[in-house]
Structures are given as C-alpha cells and as structure tokens.
Amino acid sequence: MSESTQLEGRFPPPPELAAEANVKADAYEEAARDRLGFWETQARRLSWEKEWDRVLDWDKPPFAKWFVGGKLNVAYNCLDRHVEAGHGDRVAYHWEGEPGDTRTLTYGELTQEVCRAANALLKLGVQAGDRVAIYMPMIPETVIAMLACARIGAVHMVVFGGFSADALASRITDAGAVLVITSDGGYRRGAPSALKPAVDDAVSRTDSVRNVVVVKRTGQDVEWNEGRDLWWDDVVARQSPEHTPEAFDAEHPLYIMYTSGTTAKPKGILHTTGGYLTQVSWTHWAVFDLKPDRDVFWTAADVGWVTGHSYIVYGPLSNRATSVMYEGTPDTPHKGRWWDIIQRYKVSILYTAPTTIRTFMKWGEDIPAEYDLSSLRLLGSVGEPINPEAWLWYHKNIGGGRCPIMDTWWQTETGAHMITPLPGVTTLKPGSAQTPIPGVSAKVVDDEGNELGDDSTGLLVLTEPWPSMLRTIWGDDDRYVDTYWSRFGKNVYFAGDGAKKDADGDIWLLGRVDDVMNVSGHRISTTEVESALVSHPTVAEAAVVGASDPTTGQGIVAFVILRGNVTEEQSGEELVQTLRLHVRREIGPIASPRQIMVVQELPKTRSGKIMRRLLRDVAENRELGDVTTLTDSSVMELISEKLPAAPSED
Ligand code: PRX
Q1: C-beta of 377 in contact with ligand 1 (< 6 A)
Q2: What is the distance between the terminal CA atoms of the chain, rounded to a whole angstrom?
Q3: pLDDT for 380-428, tens place per residue?
Q4: Percentages (nearest 5) of helix, strand, coil residues in the chain
Q5: Are 139 and 105 in contact (CB under 8 A)?
C-alpha cells in the first residue's frame, strides 16, 4: 500500500449504529483481561447438552482441544433451538435460482428437511465419523445435506462445483468418502451446467464410495449407475421429518475443506464442532452487527468455499439470521442482477470479495444507481486485500456513503474472522483489515520471528490458539506441523501472508509470501498448475507465477518449455489453447492461466532453482531485477521478447 492511501480518509462508526451495536469497545478489554473467559462467554451463546470441563487444552501444541468434555449438536444449534423458541416461521433462506425461480425456507421447514435428509443418510448406512462428499450447485439441498451430516456426526467434505473430476477424485480418495451427494447440474451464465458426469468419472477412479445421491435441479439427462445411484427425492422425501439429534463431543470432526498449499497436493483442513461454531457464530453476530429480527443478510459467495461454510451456513443459522442465497453469476441475465436482488429482498448486510467489486467498477456506477439500495446498512469484504479505490467505490456506490465496510482477514485454516474492524467501534481506514478481533492475538514479525513495532513490514503470525482453528490436515499431522507451526516454533501459527503495521498499529495485509496465488479470492498453488501443465504430453517443463491483475487481484501466467518432438508449427496459439483447456480439465476453470508463454529456457540459479521473481517481473512488464545469479542472463531477453503485448482474456 502506498503512503497516499493512508490519507484517503477515515470513517468513524455511524453514531446510530455505534449506539446500538452488538459489540462495544469494552469487548477488547474484557478479552485482554481473560482471553479464555471471553471465549467461554461466547461459547455460552450456543446450546450445549453438556458444558465443558476445560476451556482449552494446549498441552501438546500445535494440537489444540477447545471446550474439552463439552457436548453439543451443530444442527440443533442452527435449527431446532430456534424452532423451539418460537421462531419456526422466520425465514432462514430466501433462495433465488439463476433462471429466476425462487424458494423460501423457514426455520421450521429447513429443520424438517434436514431431519429427512439425516434419516436418509442413516438408512444408507452413513455413520458418525464417516466422510460424505458434497459436489453441488448453490441450491438449498446443499445446505440441507451439510446440516444433515452435522446432525448425525458425519464429516462433510464440500468440493466447489467448479472443480474438475480429477480434483474431486483426489479429494474423495484422500478423505475416504463413502457417499457423494451431487445434482444433475446447476445454472450458470444462463445455461444448465452438468455436475453428474464429473462425479461418475471421479467415482470410477476411487473405491470408497458406496452410493451417489443425485438432486434433480436442471432436469438434464444423466448417466445412471444402477445400484449405486439414487435420486435425492426417492431417498429423502419419504423419510420422517423428525429426528432426535445426538450431542457430539466438542472435538468431533465437523468438516474437511481442501485448500491449496505450496505443493501440488491440496490439504484437507479439518474443523471440529464446539470451537468452530463458537467463533463462527460470535464473529457473524459481532462483525456484521447482526440483528436477527431486522436484518437480511447476504454472503454472495459459493458454499463450496470456507466463506460459504462459515457465513452462508453455520454463522447465520446459529444466529437465526434471514439470509439470501443466490445460485448464479452477477451478470445473468443482466449486470444489475445483484442490485435487483438487494432491492427485492431488502438486503441490509452484503458480504463479498474485492474482485467482484472491481468487476462492478468496470461495469460502471450507473448500473447500481438504477436500483434502490437504501436497505443496506453494512458491507463486508473478504478473500484478498481490498485496494482503497475499490473500497471507496463500494462505500459510495453500493453503501450510499453510509455503510461501514468490514474488511475481514481470515483463512480456510482459521475457520472464522480473525482481523477485522468492528462496526460500532472502529474508525475505518480504506484498505486495512486493522485489528485482531477480541480474543485473537496477531503479530507482525521479521524473518527470525522477532515482533516488529509500528511502522514496519514483515510476516503475519497468530500467537495464541483460537477456538475455530484447524485441528490438523486430514490424515497428515506432520504436514500440519510443518506447514503452519515449524517456522517460528510450535506455539506460533505462520499464516503465509505478508503484513504491515502502520504508525497507529493497524494491520495492512500485503498478500501471500509463499508460492500460493490468490486469483479472484481463490487460493491456487503455482506447483498445482505446473504439475497440471507438465502432465500434458507436449510439455517438458513449466513455471507458473501470479502476476498482478487489475480485476482478479492476481492472474496466472505460465511459462512452458515444450518437448523436443513438438515442431515449430505445432507450438502456436492452438497449442496454448489446448494447454489452457488441459489445466481446466485437470484442476478447474479457476486455475486456467491468463497467459501461457512458450519459451526455450527458464531462468535458473546455478543450483537449478527457477527464479520466479524474474518471471514475475516479465509477467508484470517490469524492469528486470537483479539477474546476476542466473546461469545464463540472456535467457531473460529471450523470454521478454516472447511476451505478447496484451494478455488474452479467458
Ligand atoms: O492471503 C490471504 C487472503 O486469502 C488467504 C486465505 O484464503 P482462503 O483460505 O481461500 O480463504 C479465503 C476466505 C477467508 C489469506 O491467507 N485474504 C483473505 N481475506 C483477506 C485476505 N487478504 C487480505 N485481506 C483480507 N480481508
């Protein structure tokens, strides 16, 4: 961030909001005085069948146990307890399909649907602790399936519907899933988009899956595997709408969510029950200042990512919120679709990603200006640093200059918000996530782990365990320790982000410091894309970098060396297209490179390491940095000459 961004204004909390805010400044003092006591208070916002004997067991770091000995059921906390308290008629979701079809689900109805689905899972032999893969579009059954798993103690593993059959297969195998829940397809960009073929392909390559349950959404033709495949309507509809939830241990696994690391193999991040729900529920209530009787809350993200898990499903439902859930893309059938949704459902809180905001900026402020957005009172941002220009645009054109913006820093691994302003307390600085939430301890350190003072730049670390932290990487405790808890010792979590502390001690996130790219708020590792490229028969070697991109934050730029048997004529634009498609097939469309450059050599150090820094300079059209450690500095001239004038869009 440039110094000038710090001069672009300060935004104090709106006085009416501050006066009625769910959380006031004293929360910071309370948590500072007694951090564990603070989290105990937040845990008591939930309903426990049995209270814990001990708040935190950190005897064997980095393996944490929170609310030891406590027992609760997540689905009960998200559903039944609200119905029992007389809120069965409150709307849980206003769901809208991309073609314009709608469904409204009250807490009462959702509870019954989840009970039916839970009974169906039990009939299919799914037991507590079993893993269930969910590969779905954004439809209510996705949430119902997740909650049904939680209700019976099965561990859900949602795979984003945009991922390929390959990606799905490797996740099913790693998790050992016994069941897959999917649909024929979903609607995207005005057309049905199939999901079942990818499941068929993936399941044929795995041996743990017994059944595939298929929700009918688009009505498109599907291949049917007799004996294995079952229609959701056939197995769920006839079940009883009643099911008595069993309370599970606070540390019972709740879900696995795969995310990219610095190697080609994604990591199965494991979240458990009591601590996760405590922090997700409290942050959703505190950071968005949720008033369940007045607000209409909308996280415009996919349930297939952690943002959807925590802030479409578990946070909002545990707080009895009314949410909007939308299936499709923001420009279908027109570029005002989101604003039309906000106007119709009177959305009061909107949570989305900077990349989407920058896309709206490109489309122009005239579009939101045609709609009545006066119901909005609070905005949120997540997924990557929000540049001050986008922040100010969002504040003015969507928030009407009156809505505070919560820039929330967190990760799949943290499970819930960690660094963010609080709407009734913080004077906002556009572009900065600012302060750790009460009960969380974040520091900026140098390479040796020494804490840095104000006005300095270094690495972000978390220095105390937090309730919604990941517990391990599924099946790989060693990798868990190595990845997050080895750089600065077993008590310090290394987040992988660079950060700056300004003169007031506010934190500015600066992006990843490892080989992980952030494309449209999605994490993709350079090695994952490289190994997809080299798996193509024409590619001998590949190097991938994330280059800054005005809309997506980072764009994927690949440099490939072709195999000797590929002729000059074969190596043109057609091959580049083939390689792009190949990556889409291997990983998914989100990993499709923005540019692929065919080169003769890659810049390497004398020890054979690819110098990505130089490739990034080329990809971002910068003056080349220091090339003296290169084996052959003329390589860079050759590569620079190859660079096409303008990046081609996919
Ligand atoms: O680099 C940070 C960035 O996204 C990473 C986490 O990605 P993921 O696990 O996919 O979760 C995304 C949704 C929580 C972080 O390491 N990131 C996320 N939020 C912000 C952010 N960077 C800056 N500011 C944010 N608000």
Answers
A1: no
A2: 28
A3: 999 999 999 999 999 999 999 999 999 999 999 999 999 999 999 999 9
A4: 30, 25, 40
A5: no
Tell me if 401 sits within 8 A of 392, measured CB to CB.
Answer: no
Q: Model's pTM, two decimal places?
A: 0.92
307 lines ligand 1 (CB under 6 A): yes
Residue in this structure with the two tokens 């959380």, named with its chain if needed:
23
Superfamily designation of domain 520-642? ANL, C-terminal domain (3.30.300.30)
pLDDT tens-place string over residues 65-120: 999 999 999 999 999 999 999 999 999 999 999 999 999 999 999 999 999 999 99
CA distance 485 to 490: 5
Q: Cβ(71) to ligand 1 under 6 A?
A: no
* Residue 407 near ligand 1, beta carbon < 6 Å: yes
Instruction: List phi, psi (to 5°) of 288.
Output: -100, 5
C-alpha span between 355 and 300 (Å, rounded): 12
**Total residue length of the chain:** 650
Give dist(CA 192, CA 101) in Å, integer.
14
- Which residue's CA is minimally distant from atom 21 of ligand 1? 384
* Residue 419 CA, closest ligand 1 atom number: 26
CA 81 to ligand 1 center in whole angstroms: 32
Q: How remote is the CA of residue 636 from the centroid of ligand 1, in Å? A: 32
Sheet holding 493-501, edge to edge: 442-445, 456-462, 493-501, 507-512
Q: Is the CB of 384 under 6 A from ligand 1?
A: yes
Judge if the beta carbon of residue 432 lies within 6 A of ligand 1.
no
Residue with CA nearest ligand 1 atom 26: 409
Architecture of the domain spanning 8-124+244-512: 3-Layer(aba) Sandwich (3.40)
Rg (CA), the chain: 24
Residue 283 to residue 275: CA distance in whole angstroms = 12
Are 294 and 346 a contacting pair, CB within 8 Å?
no
Domain residue spans in the chain? 8-124+244-512, 520-642
Q: Is the CB of 258 under 6 A from ligand 1?
A: no
- Cα–Cα dist 538/472, whole Å: 38
Residue 480 three-state SS: helix
Q: How many CB atoms lie within 10 A of CB 290?
A: 22
